[in-house]
Amino acid sequence: SPRRSIAFDPAVAAAAAPMAPSTQEEGKKKDRAEDEGQRAKRDAEAKAAAEAIRKGLSAQEVNARRAALLESSEIVHPTVIAEVAKALGDESVEVRRTAIEVLGLMRHGDARKALEGYARKEKRALAKDVETSVALYRSIGRQRSASSVKALLKRALEEESYEVRRARVWAAAYQRSPEALEGILYAMKKSD
User: Fold this and answer.
1) 131 with 164: CB under 8 angstroms?
2) For residue 186, how many other CB atoms are within 10 A of its CB?
3) Rounded alpha-carbon distances, angstroms, from residue 147 to 42, 61, 88, 121, 173
4) Burial, 191: exposed, middle or buried (Cβ in 10 Å; 0-12, 13-18, 19+)?
5) In tens digits, what is the pLDDT along the chain, a chain of 192 residues?
6) Environment class of 76 (CB within 10 Å of its CB; exposed 0-12, middle 13-18, buried 19+)
């Protein structure tokens, strides 16, 4: 039997034919409606998660505040990130570390900005707290933002703690970019 070309298959030819302008417009409207529906659903989920975080952070128990942050870690939305970032000012170091870890898991520009802002604002306190510093720099590295490389490497090799130096260099290396490699080599050369 002779082989048939796909072009001669009526079903394929009909599917491959350009859509009529009215059909294209209907398709675009349907896509926009689905996008708006999905966006509204995400916004509603984020609003509920933000409210749960607010409620959880008002608890007296440290573990309840930490649990509220951990429950929100899968919802990456500016509203949720803003609430998690508020926990960076908590009185408990465990809650602050949990907020740092959660923000590190949320790959979003707002999370990166919150982490970098905390690093700048709390520079003196972080110098005394190796464990929180290491968690912070690892979380900044998880953001995989080329714009973080300069901040990660600035005076990184002058840190007193080996663990913090290592965390900062590895966080920069995690970016896997030529800029990160150049920055690491420059910092090493500068420290010699």
Assistant:
1) no
2) 11
3) 28, 37, 22, 18, 13
4) exposed
5) 455 444 455 555 555 555 555 556 665 655 566 678 888 889 999 999 999 999 999 999 999 999 999 998 889 999 999 999 999 999 999 999 999 999 999 999 999 999 999 999 999 999 999 999 999 999 999 998 888 888 888 888 888 888 998 898 898 888 888 888 888 888 887 766
6) middle
For the chain, strand residue ranges (E) read none
For residues 56 and 65, the answer to whether their CB atoms sit within 8 Å is: yes
Q: State the angle between helix axes of 78-86 and 109-121 in degrees (0 to 180), rounded to the nearest 10.
A: 20
**Count, residues in the chain:** 192
Site of tokens 């908590």? 90
Listed in order, strand segments (DSSP E) in 30-163 are none
CA separation (Å) from 32 to 25, 28, 184?
11, 6, 45
Q: What is the C-alpha separation between 16 and 52, in angstroms, rounded?
A: 49
DSSP 175: T
Amino acid at 75: I
- Spell 82-113 as b/e; 16+ CB within 10 A means b: ebbbebbebeeeebbbbbbbbbbebeeebbbb
